[in-house]
Amino acid sequence: MQEKNPTLSLNDSFIEAVKNNDPQVLKNLYVNNYPKIEILVLRNSGSKDQAKDIYQDAFLAVWQNIKQDKFIPKSESSINGYLYTIAKNKWLDVLRSSGYKKTIVASQLGHFEIKDEENNDIDDDILKDKRLEDVMLAFKNLGEACKSLLRMFYFEKKSMKFIAEELALDSASTRNKKYRCMQKLKSLALKN
Amino acid sequence: MDLQHITQEELEQIEKYLNGNLDALALTKFEQRMQTEAEFKSKVEDIKTVLTGIETQALKEQLDIFHEAIETVSTESEEEDTKVHTLNWKRLLVAAALIIAAGSFWFLGGNPNERLYANYFKPDPGLPTTMSSSDNYNFYEAMVNYKQGDYKTAIAKWETLQKAKPNNDTLNYFIGVAYLANKNEEIAIPFLEGVAQNSEFALINDAYYYLGLAYLKADNVDKAKSSLQKSNVENSKALLSELND
After folding, report:
1. pTM exceeds cut of 0.70
2. Could you tell me which chain B residue has the CA closest to the CA of A173?
3. Contact (CB<8Å) B62/A26
């Protein structure tokens, strides 16, 4: 807490924490924002499971946008509003889709009050990339040994030194193991 | 995605590039190679996709674990309801009072300000406490208490710090939101009022929002509106439009 310039210290550290997948920060964001979205979906013809799916998609999209600096939150609460808007739009898309058309009366969408200007600059299509989907599916089905190694490197962002100690290997073997895991993952992704 | 032909060195080099870890000379060389070799450029793109995919899928799996925390919260309260008969009479009385209060609240439709407040109020999530710097150790230690919902302890620790730094906006802000989270809006208001005086404060928009909420809880709708108006937080705009309906 530097009194001279709180803007930089507070916000940068928070954004950095999100970008580096700080587990506590992500968990707080996730847990704090879910109830509001669950209420929204439940009140608008959805189920708990649908609320969870929509929310998780929205959460991933927000995280991606922060990582890529497409969205630079001014404060934690501006993330909350942004996350809510994305989730709401995603749920609206579901409601508008053909399967729902029959059961939804237009008036039920009334209290969404969509303002176009707030939706124009929101981009959440990163997850619609087919190649990315293939990689995600491949990673999901990768053997646990490779999975946990790659998770430590790329998600938990642990240092080479830490991971080598964790696996009780020297750093050259660790690097080689990581390379072979990447090869395995890529060949799996190609098969999809 | 044609990634069959990539050596370990090449992969590590590309990763360094993607993570911004190449030195100036290596970076220039690397970027030249991307411009001249289309195949190399698409390799880099592919690796980028792979890294993004790993990270995204890992987070996705993590989210399910986070979600269990939410689900245990709701099942715990359900379990407690079924175990009422095993509780001692004091807790039973409290539970009964709560049930009666909740019942009459719904029955009478509740106070609209109370209801709006309940719909909108969520404690400020606090600041990340993974700071490596130890100079604010006490501040972040209290932040941990705050995040665990132990507002009393957090307030006590922050107020100790605040005696030495009475004009620190960040401290005053968090003391204010902690009091509010602890259902003590009367005490929260002066803290948040003070913070809202400083237009340079990093969390000024949050301060206005929580000050507005505190006024709403205190049934002072006019002051709530004027404070909410000054905040650019999404929720603040939404709440304001509900108040103006």
Report:
1. no
2. B8
3. yes
